[in-house]
Amino acid sequence: PRRRSRILRYCCHHKCFIFVYFLGIMLEYEKSGQLKTKSIDLLDLDPSTDVSALVEEIQKAEPLITASRSDQVKLLIQRLQNKLGQHSNHKFYLFKVIDKIATGSFDKTCKLWSVETGKCYHTFRGHTAEISEPFSFCRKVYTLIGHCAEISSALFNWDCSLILTGSMDKTCKLWDAVNGKCVATLTGHDDEILDSCFDYAGKLIATASADGTARIFSAATRNCVTKLEGHEGEISKISFNPQGNRLLTGSSDKTARIWDAQTGQCLQVLEGHMDEIFSCAFNYKGDIIITGRGEINPINSALLSNWLLEFLS
């Protein structure tokens, strides 16, 4: 699937965009007055790849990449290649403060960064495949083994007694955070699980899937208590409000939806984005929502929308 590639995105208006996704190129063009996209995977790109030869190969297969575009594409791929080859030997200490951020990458590493300067403090190595989400661990305690495909999300419940993982194998798993044993497998989705979360009390679990539905499970019984239906595309993000009575979903159908977490009823559809919604979240009061779509603008740095939810206050 391409929905999590690192994409080098450029369009017919001579503007370049870099978008974090799976390794690949997305072409954006206009046809019959409509904006179209086409994706080319670059999953085999590594620091030793001959970029010039790669661009020539892509040009032969894709007529949209003309000679006038080749230098631009080559430059962007070289920048991406340089990122894949970066190394760091800095020693570090990890503190629970807000001036640092951890990132997980498809280059099989996690990095610790300064929020203020953007400097990379340290690179964590050890995984043998892509990392889709980082933990704030300095030392590996144990390895969780059981999923049959890539893991799309991983997080603790509020008291750190359980770990929840979502996977492309269409399941979520609950793990004992003390011994690393799997205590439950949550099933029911017909396609890959793209996101999952606990509510703030740790009593409910929500899952979002490429099948266009979300489900709510009881953390105690591990049974599905509610199925959320209504989106017309895959759901890439799901989150509870702080009160735990509302759920927010973002979808490739260009909308976000607010749901009653008890009944599964859709309370409101948030429309206005012109592209897929990849991220969305409540603020800490639960009265404002922010949504982000699948494109990064070099001027504004991100295309985001705020929504004031008066009926939730």
TrEMBL record:
UniProt keyword list: Cell projection, Cilium, Cytoplasm, Cytoskeleton, Flagellum, Repeat, WD repeat
Organism: Capra hircus (Goat)
Superkingdom field: Eukaryota
Entry's Gene Ontology BP terms: axonemal dynein complex assembly
Full protein name: Dynein assembly factor with WD repeat domains 1
Stored PANTHER family: DYNEIN ASSEMBLY FACTOR WITH WD REPEATS 1 (PTHR22847:SF744), WD40 REPEAT PROTEIN (PTHR22847)
Entry annotated with the keyword Cytoplasm: yes
GO CC entries: transferase complex
UniProt xrefs under Gene3D superfamilies: YVTN repeat-like/Quinoprotein amine dehydrogenase
Coiled coil feature spans: none
WD repeats: 101-123, 144-185, 186-227, 228-269
